[in-house]
Amino acid sequence: MTHVEHLKGPQPFDKTRNMAATAPKFLSVWDIQAYYGESYIVQGVSFDIHEGEILALLGRNGAGKTSTLRTIARLGNPSLKHGEIWLDHEPLHKMKSHQAAQKGIALVPEDRRIISGLTVEENLKLAQINPPIGWSLDRIYELFPRLGERRRQEGVTLSGGEQQMLAIARALARDIKVLLLDEPYEGLAPVIVQEIAKTLELIRDQGITTIIVEQNAVAALKLADRAVILDTGQVVFDGSAQDVLDDEGLRAQYLAI
């Protein structure tokens, strides 16, 4: 566990310590610094993920979690000014968003971006217009039977949980390596949260690496293998998810739980 004196408040994070994992890294984020205009949002964030891991990226509102996801996905806003992002030996930091997507990065944003006027199946087919194509519709419907039942229903008329399933399914319709999830549990009943968590475990079993940003920190930690906690745009904890669940002081200081 890399633990950064959390009871004494945020301290500079030693970037060399979490680079020392013996297993090969699949996604490496090194000292990324990103800005919205002149606002310094992501302030030297570094962490590694191994293939097939689920990482919970946590912190209070405004800690820089969504901005970090957007930077990894190379959306351009915030703007990456310094640092490197490597995915399976590919330099994402040198790419635009569409190039990063072609290399296997998929971001499911908080608002889900279901396309109005299109059915469930049309939303999925639209994701497969251009290569690289991922899971077949049959495989998607096997993972999400409810979507199969509603394949002819307009996507925006689905329940919140079903829309989240569709948003994840649309990502899987592409050939992805890393799934970035921004607040996937927001507004969902606990039973639906559990259902989506089980689905994400099945996706992990397929070798897909996942980063989940979630205000429901306990639910995210129960799902995740590891956790990174941000505070004011900096890493203050990098270790196992269970360590965070077991550390009441850490959770109280940085997660308010």
From TrEMBL:
The answer, when asked if Nucleotide-binding is one of the entry's keywords, is: yes
Keywords (A to Z) from UniProt:
Amino-acid transport, ATP-binding, Nucleotide-binding, Transport
Q: Which GO terms describe its biological process?
A: L-amino acid transport
Q: Which GO terms describe its molecular function?
A: ATP binding; ATP hydrolysis activity; branched-chain amino acid transmembrane transporter activity
Short name of one Pfam family for this protein?
ABC_tran
ABC transporter domain residues are 27-257
Give the InterPro entries listed for this entry. AAA+_ATPase (IPR003593), ABC_transporter-like_ATP-bd (IPR003439), ABC_transporter-like_CS (IPR017871), BCAA_Transport_ATP-bd_LivF (IPR052156), P-loop_NTPase (IPR027417)
Protein name (database record): ABC transporter ATP-binding protein
